[in-house]
Amino acid sequence: VPIKVEDFKDYFRKQQTNSNCGFAKEFENLKSVGISQAKSSGLALENKGKNRYNNVLPDSSRVKLSIQGSPFDDYINANYIPGYNSRKEFIAAQGPLASTVNEFWRMIWEKNVSTLVMLTRCNEQGRVKCEEYWPSGTKHFSNITVTSTSEIVLDDWTIRDFTVKNVKTAEKRPLRQFHFTAWPDHGVPGTTELLITFRHLVRDHMDQFSRNSPSVVHCSAGVGRTGTFIAIDRLIFQIERDNEVDVHGIVHDLRMHRPLMVQTE
């Protein structure tokens, strides 16, 4: 149930009592949301190797790529996710594997993506979380050529610009990657300010492009940090435009499109 902004302080205090008991219950309620959705595409033998984690498998709202030869060419571990403004405002994706980098760039091209958000480092605590899928110069990914045009490295994030070119048609498009590097290996960022400032940067860029251009958001599995970022974006709109807050409702909606979105309470 949405809470009016003016009532939120009282609601928050109530939920916080008994060591956040109210929040824990609310989060527990979401445990099974979306998990019974069909997973047949992700489980297909030909597609199994394209998944970073075998428990995060998209299906009903999965992003379908063009068929290049095999009927399984359309598979990528990614889902359309509704934002505040449109039902396909975002694509939530897993961090590309070495073997799926070409598909990732194909998705960027075919879905006309201009904004790319990365919320993990490639390696965290000695574990590979995501392939470094972008070039420092120019690199070919099957029929797509990607050229790095600028990189601005700041303390908490890096902003990279690329030109993405379709080799067959010679058409070129700009792409900006917002890479948030301040997420701690365990747990959540210490304050909300950083993430909200980062969200505003991303949103300013998103708003320069048409609604038909979904923004890709990914971490490692494409559910925890990715779900949190998309939920924050929707919540800020909800507060600004509707004067209400419905964290539970938003996370419920996200999980109906990609199970496990937002991983910890």
From TrEMBL:
Q: Which domain of life is it from?
A: Eukaryota
Q: Which residues form a coiled coil?
A: none
Compartment list: Membrane
The cross-references to SMART domains, in alphabetical order and at most eight, read: PTPc (SM00194), PTPc_motif (SM00404)
InterPro entries, A to Z: Prot-tyrosine_phosphatase-like, PTP_cat, RTP_Phos/Ushers, Tyr_Pase_AS, Tyr_Pase_cat, Tyr_Pase_dom
Q: Which GO terms describe its cellular component?
A: membrane; receptor complex
Domain Tyrosine-protein phosphatase intervals: 23-265
PANTHER family hit by this protein: CYTOKINE RECEPTOR, PROTEIN-TYROSINE-PHOSPHATASE
Please state what the protein is called. protein-tyrosine-phosphatase
Organism field: Paramormyrops kingsleyae
